Amino acid sequence: MRTAIAISPHADDATAFCGATLAKLVDQGWRVIVVRVTDDCKDSLGLTLKETKRINTEELHKAARILGVSKIIELGYQTDCLADVSEVELRERIVYMFRKYRPYAVFTFDPFGQYEGNMDHIHVAQAVEEAFWVSCFDLHHPEHFKKGLKPYSVCERWYFARNLPEANHAEDITNYMEKKVKALCAQRTMMINTMNQHRLQLESSGRRMEWLENSMKGDIQPLIATFLQGQANAVAEKFKLGQGKMAEAFRLERFGDLEELFREMSEPLPGAEPALKRESLDPVPQPSPRSEKQIENIFPKDIHKKIRLMGHHHLCAGAFEELFQLPLFRLGYPELTSRLKASPDLLIESIYGYDIFCYQCGYWSEDEGRCITGWKNKISKDAAVLELLGIRTGETRRLEDLQKLLASKVSPADLEKFCGSGEWKCEFYLLGICQKGFENLRKRFKVKKK
Questions:
Q1: How many CB atoms lie within 10 A of CB 9?
Q2: Per-residue pLDDT tens for 341-400?
Q3: Sheet with strand 71-77: strands edge to edge
Q4: Global pTM?
Q5: DSSP letters of 316-345?
Q6: HEC-encoded secondary structure of 182-193
Q7: Which domain holds residue 419?
Q8: Structural domain count, the chain
Q9: What's 202's domain CATH number?
Q10: d(CA 401, CA 132)
Q11: Which of 225, 247, 265 marks a domain boundary?
């Protein structure tokens, strides 16, 4: 069973910003935990501090039952005073919960939310954001480990805000809006106080709203439902979910800048639950731009016996073994690496023009049918490499013989010149793969480094 934790400063925050999504997760079999950071002892109208604290707590539990929340964790800080609380202290409480409950997803305020005026919101958001990475460290809070806990990293981070920057995910909550409305209405004390804030602002502007005032004295559901549905309809429309749909907006993050790399190169852990697919993070794979017939024409039937290489790709032959074992290279050249077996007797024909590596290279433009780095640039590199090796186009030699030639002719300085930073750069050189390949060639053929 996957676990989701919603961490909110106040009792009504989780319901208002992600309540329908939480209810949806419950229906999908998740365990949902809500963490209330403050005691909400001042969020009422016409009640004492003690009464406010008790009633808001009772109404929080009522709302949680409506949404299906299985557990409420109270941190008990005084409401509207988190600015006086050490962020490190608050962060430690959150790190502990991450390590104890090991949530797959966490919902909270976006620390980069725009125009946020509530310091409780800001401090909770900042503490959670730091806790995401601090919880991974084995030197942060070792006292947790004495209780049997381990470092842990949350997979999905669901950020919400009043003004959410760069929202990238809209969760369809059309079938869960009724639960959200009922849950928020169950927190009547806090809703009445919110309405009173708007009433006072209207009053200072010299205006009044009869519906608002009547709602404060009676049934709050029509007004609450109108606001929530209008908000949810606008989100669904923005994300083009379809007519009549309703949604909650989030900035959903998983691996950040490493998302694409991890998605393409990771593999399932034995016995682990399958990774969840998210449209905002897992785009539908695009089909190959080439037909099977085109692929057959690119890769000859006798590819295991003979290939043709343009001038500068002779250098790649010096690191075939290392390149073909590299996951990133296999990912970039899947059709080639699945077909080509670089045996010592593989024949290499030196040619002028594009070869089988070009058609899968990231610099190849399918629309223009050429290398976008510039043909002139490639020609100059080809000529320089072939001149260094003493090879003319049209010649054919075994891969092992070519590699022996590369080991004796290409020095580390030559390799850097042809593949390092500059006009002839190659991204794989920065990985150290080619340098390792040529070093292995020199050892194999007992060639001293120049």
A1: 27
A2: 889 999 999 999 889 888 888 778 878 878 887 767 778 999 999 999 999 999 999 999
A3: 71-77, 31-38, 3-8, 105-109, 156-160, 247-253, 169-172
A4: 0.86
A5: HHTTHHHHHH-HHHHHHSHHHHTT----TT
A6: HHHHHCHHHHHH
A7: 292-444
A8: 2
A9: 3.40.50.10320
A10: 53
A11: 265
